[in-house]
Structure formats: C-alpha cells, structure tokens
Amino acid sequence: MEQEISNIAREATAALPPKPVIEVKNLRKGFDKVEVLRDLSLQLFENENLVVLGKSGSGKSVLIKCMVRLLRADAGTIRIFGENVQEMNDRELAELRVKIGFLFQRGALYDSMTIRENLEFPLVRIKKYLSRKEIDAKIEEALENVGLSDTINKMPSQLSGGMRKRASLARTIVVDPMIMLYDEPTTGLDPVTSDEISMLINNVKKKYNTSSVIITHDIACARATGDRVIMLNEGEVHMEGTIRSFEQSSDPLIQSFFKFREPSSAKAQPHHG
Q: What is the DSSP string of 79-125?
C-alpha cells in the first residue's frame, strides 16, 4: 500500500509543470533616452539551460545585470524564487546574490592570488561554518569538476585563456549556486576550447542541479547547451523555442543570424536536456 502511494505521489510530481525560478515581466531599461530593453518578458525554469541569443546591442548583458540589480530596471518586475528583486533591501539582495553564480566575459580572477586562494576567497566569506578540511575538499572538488586539479597552486597569469575561464567557473560553483548566469562564456576562445566550456556548462547543470541563463551569440554554444532558446531583437523577445525550431525558421532575421554561424567544430553536438 505504501509503495502504491509512493508511486502515485512520484507520478503526480512528474506530471507537474516545471517551476519557474526567474520570472521577468514587461521589463524596460534605457540609457540616455535610448531604450535597450522594451517590454521584455521571459521565464527560467528549474534545472534548465536557457540560451539568450541576439546581436551586439540587443540588450542581452543588460538583461542579466538587471536580474540581480547590478543595473536597476526602469519598469517591469523581476522575481527570483518568487521574490521581487526590485523591492529588495540591501541585505535581501546580498542573500539572493549568494544563490546566484556569475561568469562574466573577463572571468575576473584576482591576479595576485593563486587559484586555490581565488576559490577560497568567496568560499570562506559565504560559507563561514566550514572547517579547514571542508574548505580544502570543496576547492579540490570544484577544480576537479572543471578539469583543473593540477593548477591549484598556480597563478592566473600561468594559465591559458580557456583555463582561466574554467578557473573562474570553479570559483563560481565552489559556493554551490542554485542559478548560473553566463555572459558570453565562449567569447575570445578557440573552437575546441569553446566546445570544452559548453560541455562544462552542461556538466555543472548535471552535477549541481543549476538553472542557467546563457547569454551568447555563439551558435555552437547555443546548440550544445540550450534546452530552450530566446532571441532578442531591439530589446524584445523576437522568438522563443528549441534550437531546431530556430534552424528551421523561415524568419529572415533568424535565417541571417544562423546562416553563417555553423558549429565551431564537429564536437559541438545538439544538447537534449
């Protein structure tokens, strides 16, 4: 009887629609009378990789900065885990940001610190209760998960661009974020390294059960990581769907964006999340 009840409960849970962790409604943001985001609405669901595509200047990076209030939106609402980001005080905002990992274009490692120290810095600040042994274990696990175990005592200047990007990712995941925001994660990297970063994004989702927004104009990265794709145009959602629906679209803008952006290498395979 208990087993039957358990099975029924499991089936009922599986039948529930996915739960949104981020909800953006009617978002507007402008600079000097130029409106960058215009009435933009989207959702990010639990354990989903959402790719946001668009040309330079379409508002992609502004969008994720508004999500965590690095920029203040002019109008609209942003809810993360059901809480209105626009109305949060400084303490509430700080508590929210602890749950969110950022991987920005430059990576932003501290050049004067070793890789170990770079990871330890946010870890001891956010998870104050950890023992020395637990701190070391978390750092080693994060570096192992991005394939950088042997760089633990190196300086950032000793790493290649791709390795620095992976070290930045390790520093982000070491504090166990629930949401990841990737801003052009493959920009400036060669095709093979770009594919490695795309695979790591998928591995982070799998190992850490993260929900992710991936800002990119790299079609190979979108193909490899995206469970769902949104394209922005002039600050609005132009199209939403699977990568396949984008590839099959007859929309001139979609076609122009995809036409000359083939996979960066044979390794970039579609991801079926």
A: EETTEEGGG--HHHHHHHHHTEEEE-TT----TTS-HHHHHHHHHHH
Closest CA to 205 of 9, 51, 63, 17: 51
CA–CA dist 110, 115 (Å, integer)? 9
**How many alpha carbons lie under 13 Å from residue 12 in its C-beta half-sphere?**
6
For helices 191-208 and 161-173, give the axis angle rounded to 10 degrees.
10
CA distance 254 to 143: 38
Structure token pair of residue 86? 């626009």
- Residue of higher predicted confidence among 110 and 9: 110
Which tokens is 249 given? 């679209």
Pair 194, 201: CB distance under 8 Å: no
Residue 258's pLDDT is 78
What pTM value is reported for the model? 0.85
State both tokens at 176. 């166990």
For 148-184, the DSSP string reads -GGGTTS-GGGS-HHHHHHHHHHHHHTT--SEEEEES
For 202-230, the pLDDT digits (tens) are 999 999 999 999 999 889 999 999 999 99
8 A C-beta contact, residue 49 and residue 225: yes
1 vs 204, higher pLDDT? 204
* DSSP single-letter state for residue 271: P
Output the CA torsion sign for 263, 188, 158, 132: negative
pLDDT at 74: 95
With the C-alpha atoms ordered 60, 66, 178, 161, is the resulting torsion angle positive or negative? positive
